[in-house]
Amino acid sequence: MKPTGLVFFPAFDWAISPTHPEREERLLYTRDQIFEEGIMDLPQITEYQPQMATARDVARTHFCVPNVKDQATDAHLISCGGALTIADAFMRREIRNGFALVRPPGHHSMRVSHGNRGFCNINNEAIMVDYLRHHYKVKRIAIVDTDVHHGDGTQEIFWHDPDVLFISFHQDGRTLYPGTGFIDEIGGPLAQGYTLNIPLPPGTGDQGILYVLDNFVLPVLKEFHPELVVNSAGQDNHYSDPLANMRFTARGYAELNRRLAPDIAVLEGGYSVETALPYINMGIIMAMAGIDYQYLYEPDYEPGLAQESKMRMEVIKQIIEALQKTWRKRDKLIEANRNTREKFYQRHKSIFYDTDNIHEQQMETLRLCQDCPGYLTIDSHARFHSGFDNRVYCISIPWQACRTCVQDGSELYESIKKRHGRHEYIYLQDKSNDRFLRYDCLTGMEISIE
Description:
alpha/beta
């Protein structure tokens, strides 16, 4: 049997601040636990050193304003590169599955990145998905986000992509950052039903989360039939996490991982640094490697934590029933949107960068194409706490774009360059040709992002 691949990158030289939850010590106790238990010496485990993601890897997913280097430090590029390293090892069939234990995290980072929001600058899993598509021609991918916070960045990046099934279960957004992830958020007009959110009531533990997995997530995955399953492995559903109010246990995480059986897991949140993360990470590693975890318990574990109240289980069942209806009618929803007489779909978005105190307004426009997911434009206006304003215009052509969308999107880029108005930068993200351009409206200089 092939081993489980591990990449460990704790980024001991990067933190938002010395006292911030996303700081250097976050994986210190995990590192000690892993090496003290001798996990890395087992034949079931193979360790890899992370590569560094390139600016081109990032530009394939993000519009980093003004440049990739302004949003991604070396620590971000190595963290992201850890996910790419595991992806390469998996696709080369060197491992049966893999876990990137890396930080900084990424799942709150959206397509346009003006700064840090939710502790995230660039989105590790989304970049990895685009990397897999470009280098290995993988088409259908499922991302299951198990972080306690809604994976709003990953959702936004794949909102219009019917070939990426994004499922997020998280603490109800009415009670926790980022305040999104409700059951009516189901994807863009040509991808409706391929975004599925499961907002769980505070206090949900092992019984409730595993019920969601068995009765909804696994059946949907089986029907979607992905070529690859990614676990956006947030660990802040744990009962001891200081930033949330859930009751998941380390053994529950291990059991979740065993049943879900992801091909690749990438670490996201989790801020109970000393009392939870070492045990959760051990549980996930053991489950992925097929090692018995029946004696895995936290020092303060109590058996009653795994049980749900009758009222909470009823709420969970009602959520699942509603989502099952959405999943069953997804094809009809998309077909109705394709048959509309409208040529374009628009939505306005207000985005707050809580870490960097940036307020962004976006106008997003999608071409409702009959033959592909359609090209996308984003007119983004960001206002910084300092009073600085930044306005950019972004054009994204999807990797599965038809010839018409490639041509129209490219021509629009050239047209906007000539009449850019108040924009500072114009971006072209042509995934179909792996071509990424940035035009500086002040200097008239155009660069290809490499």
